[in-house]
Amino acid sequence: MILCAALVVAPIAVAAAVPLPFTVLQPGISVNTLGSYQGSQVITITGHPTRQTDGQLRMTTIAATLPNYSPPLSEVVGAWGDPNKAVVPRGSVYPSGQSVSQANQVNQQAMQQSQESATTAALSFLGLSPAKVKVDLKLADVGGPSAGLMFTLGIIDELNGNGSGKQGAAGDLTGGSVVAGTGEIDDSGDVGAVGGVALKTKAAARDGATVFLVPQGECSDAKVNTPKGLRLVPVTTLDQAVKSLEALQNGGASVPSC
């Protein structure tokens, strides 16, 4: 019996240490697009007066193990049982054969496109000319397209707020509160799905958010283990996002929820 037990335990011990083709995800940083990050202002606008804002508009991220890292079985099993982590096939995050530098390059290109679309959508929403108003967006060490919606709202808030023309919380899109969210945006202001929302809601709640803007098609994912006190507001367009934030300041009765 002792010999049999040893023969069983040995393969299990070996299997537990064998690297597997998975990527482990967890909540990443969140950044207030109305503030600064790593010493640089996230949004800098020239060619048009800007407002002094209150509250926060936080973009959210997920952190992933590097493409050249293969977690052992013990780590994968532990992550599967942790509501603050997720395990996915490596290929769903990093295309096959992609190096770390290549993955970073792809993510930075997606971030650059996201910033350009956010600027176009925000200025178009406000009826401002991109030839006269210049927007510079900086967010070091963060890639991908999912900050698009929050970039756009940040630009609008700094330029116009909720249209009241007032300074401070009374004129802010946030109403002085902490709003977080995610979503890709295109030039016309349509909000697209991005993935990882069940982890991003946890990053948002951790950093003080009480409202989370989520692409409507990802409501079911966002509702998985939603942190207590975090209101999920589904959006499909920039116009809908702005109107929902304005309505929340008036009680929020008409604001949809996931």
UniProtKB/TrEMBL annotation:
Q: Which Pfam families match?
A: Lon_C
The protein, known as = Lon proteolytic domain-containing protein
Molecular function per GO: ATP-dependent peptidase activity; serine-type endopeptidase activity
Q: Which residues form the signal peptide?
A: 1-15
UniProt keywords (A-Z) are: Signal
The Lon proteolytic domain sits at: 177-243
**Which InterPro entries does the entry mention?**
Lon_proteolytic, Ribosomal_Su5_D2-typ_SF, Ribsml_uS5_D2-typ_fold_subgr
**GO terms for biological process?**
proteolysis
Asked whether the UniProt record includes Nucleus among its keywords, one would answer: no
